[in-house]
Amino acid sequence: MFSLFKALPRLGFRAQTLQVKNYRAFSDVYVNHRDTLDNNDSVPFDFTPENYKEIETILAKYPSNYKKSATIPLLHLAQKQNDNFLPLSAMKKIANILGVADMDVYEVASFYTMFNRTKVGKFHLQICATTPCMLCGAYDIVAAIEKHVGCKLGETSPDGMFTLQEVECLGACANAPMIQVNGEWVYEDLTPENVIQLLEDLKAGNAKIGPQTDRNHCEGPQGRTTLINYDSEGAHDRDFDQAKKDWEDARAAAKAAAAQKK
Ligand code: FES
User: Fold this and answer.
1) Distance from Cα 189 to the centre of ligand 1, integer Å
2) Number of domains in the chain
3) CA of residue 146 to ligand 1 center, whole Å
4) Where would you tag: which of 89, 99, 179, 190 has the fewest CB atoms within 10 A of its CB?
5) What CATH number is given to the structural domain containing 33?
């Protein structure tokens, strides 16, 4: 009988070839909840009065029988209120407000990397390492940050300032490599040198959002070549009112032509 394992050496494979010698963990976040002293059922959490008002505004956007649709906005709200950390009791509070099972909220919170179910440092650095960022040196950025702050991916620096996490594409590939901080602001066009300055600027409270070079937004070497007349007041090259009128005229003409054929 043909034996694959006996045949492999003759085909030039050695046992070692089949062994995975090194592997890289692609997630440093536990899916399951683990009770800790600062994150268990008995640790209280409640929204602030201001955030209860905000919750009313959020819930008003959905039909009353689809309150569950507000799960993600409420998770964001709780996390922001609680120093970028989403404890078990916050998820239970949200389930209670929405009238759903606790598990419905846990499922959402454990699926998305933007929800931190363990405490993070003052600055939660989400470092993109998907293909465009990786090819532009994301792992050099990781190495530079790790060396500077004194911790590895998935850890918090000894001074409690930085938590490092590798994440997938954050939608700023044109400015790769990049990082997102505290789930809000992005810092782009990083180099192993300018990222160190960025870390210091974050601590000092004067970090510049966006490209860390003199590049304007995501413009190429020729500068802006499209939307030349766009300004921040909302003026566009295209007259949308005229475009709508043209479309309505064309539709009316097509209807008239079809009626004539009958
Ligand atoms: S690959 Fe990094 S932002 Fe898209």
Assistant:
1) 11
2) 2
3) 20
4) 99
5) 1.10.10.1590
Q: Can you tell me the distance from the alpha carbon of 111 to that of 92, in angstroms, rounded to the nearest whole number? A: 16
pLDDT digits (tens, 9 = 90+) for 55-64: 999 999 999 9
- Claim to verify: residue 53 and residue 71 sit in the same structural domain: yes
Is the distance from the beta carbon of residue 178 to the nearest atom of ligand 1 less than 6 Å?
Answer: yes
Q: Does ligand 1 lie within 6 Å of residue 170's CB atom?
A: yes
With a 6 Å cutoff on the Cβ, whether 130 touches ligand 1 is yes
- In this structure, of 34-38, 49-53, 89-93, the range with the lowest mean pLDDT score is 34-38
Of 191, 211, 231, the one marking the end of a domain is 211
Q: Hunting for tokens 């929405």 — which residue is that?
A: 98
Question: Which stretch of 24-28, 132-136, 211-215, 233-237 has the lowest confidence by average pLDDT?
Answer: 24-28
Instruction: Kindly state whether residues 111 and 82 are assigned to the same domain.
Output: yes
pLDDT per position as a tens digit, 202-234: 999 999 999 999 999 999 988 888 777 666 666
Tokens of 88: 């078990």
Q: Is 190 in the pocket of ligand 1 (CB under 6 A)?
A: no
Domain final position from 99, 119, 139: 119
Judge if the beta carbon of residue 186 lies within 6 A of ligand 1: no
11 found inside a domain: no
227 within a domain of the structure (yes/no): no
261 part of a folded domain? no
Question: Tokens at residue 35, please?
Answer: 């009770």
Does pTM surpass 0.85? no
Residues 168-175, mean pLDDT to the nearest whole number? 95
pLDDT at 97: 98
CATH number assigned to the domain comprising residue 197: 3.40.30.10
